[in-house]
Protein 1
Amino acid sequence: MKQLVNIIAKALVDNPDQVIVTETDEDNKIQLELKVASSDMGKVIGRQGRIAKAIRTVLKASATKEDKHVSLEIVD
Amino acid sequence: MIDKVIGTGRTVEDAVNDGLTQLAVTKEEVEVKIIQEPTAGVLGLFGKKEAIVEVTLLDLYNPEKIAYDFLTEIVEAMDVTCDIETQLEEGVLNIEFSGPRMGILIGRRGQTLDSLQYLTGLVVNKGGESYTRVMLDTENYREKRKKTLENLADKIASKAIRYRKKMILEPMDPYERRIIHSHLQDHAQVYTYSEGEDPYRKVVVMLKDERQ
């Protein structure tokens, strides 16, 4: 799951080397935290959070397949 | 997508051409590395070696390759087995997934497919001068969805006529709204418009004779 966020975020931003994803698993819950360069925040959030929403939808599809819940937070 | 091939031939030029044919590209799009110079050999018989070159596709702006690489990584990370086919035609990049469990990539009402399409569009157009529209499909989902929406449009139109009332559909993305609008465009008794702001923008179906 962490890998998936990494791939998407790195493809979207201008500074892929500054993409950091952390994952905490607890039972069926996967919590992901995404950190990018401050100048790249807009690239992973988008207008009205549209990009973030798309990333979450893809994550959810992947998690559902494994019967898990996933949450993604974008931190600065 | 292959981006590096080995070309062989009697001369270096022949070998390069062989590589270009394999990649189906022009000379301007590749970098050539000579691996083996041809030698005529003694009396043209002994020790004769043909030219061998390595032809590598340059990292030019190639939306097909960008999309293919991006989606390949994604489906791998999602542990979904599937083939990805790309086709670029007049600024529209059509991508098709095929495999045994495509439901995962489609999602509820195509949500996952739409998200992947949107993200791929962003990645493909990142920094590019020209805009490439990305269309993602699998198992003919888009066409089926179009039929469903057209049926819905017909149903809503007859409801509007029967109850003489304006009907509001649930929020849809611009692409789906367009299907409804164009399907009811020449309808004798109703007309359509959209209201609200994306992503909650909805199609409204109204009776023509109540326009005044």
Protein 2
Amino acid sequence: MKFERETVSDEIPTSSMADIAFLLIIYFMVTTTFAATRGLDFALPKNEQNPPVVEKEDSVLIEIRPSGQLIVDRKPMQLSQVLDYIKPKLERNPMKPVIIKPDPDAPYGDMVDVFDELRQADKKIGIEIKNISIPTEREIEKFWY
Amino acid sequence: MRIRSRSTQNPVIPTASMADIAFLLIIFFMVTISFQVDKTQVVLPKTTVRSEVPKKSAYISITEQGQIRVSSGEEISVPVPGPEDVLSFATGVVAQDPEKPFVLKADRQVPYRYVDKVIDALEQSKARVIYLLSDQKTVNSKTELEQSTGGSPQQ
């Protein structure tokens, strides 16, 4: 009887390695989300006990109506006119506070639009608005009335 | 003159380096991946000023209906019943890391009262910085805004 010797290859089979690797790549590509991770930043007041006292009369008050209409110092105004209105006031007093007071029923997007516009003051009118505040309902009740 | 014998070539595509290339790509994706902690679908407001949100920030999302979800940035966001619960959540997060940034991901149509309560809760919990998550404002979206009355879209 004749025996045939089996020849065993001395190589590590790597042909499927690429398949495995590409499978992993596809997994990572699918799960990676290039999410919107940018936004408007704002710092909250540090000390609750001694909030900076802002007199309503000393500041520019921007009210936002539920319809989205802006009332700046009791005068209706377009968003594009707001910075021009604030400019002379800031030239006299660079620390002039600007208060955004949205109506509870106003859409959040309108508040963001106004805040975004004020943050662009540096670019649009050449003066930075250093003091923008968005008081919450509780603060308004506590300190203004 | 002797003609050299023709060399035989095997019809093989060299795939030995394929795995190396693939693993290099894998490493790239593994390094750059950041798992989204909050998958709530909202229509974000559009802004021109946008700064990068730090990684591992705590997330608070508000849908158009006013449903709130929170995440400390480490795990998937969980729904909370109301704005009052945001205060206890935020206090816990700030106690662990006083410098933790918060990201507010709210729908642009949500009534401001919901946002107001959340900001108030964050203020009370002594949070330092809030990021209002937004999309890039383009020239088109700007003209759209200007066309509608009052400089903002009507509800």
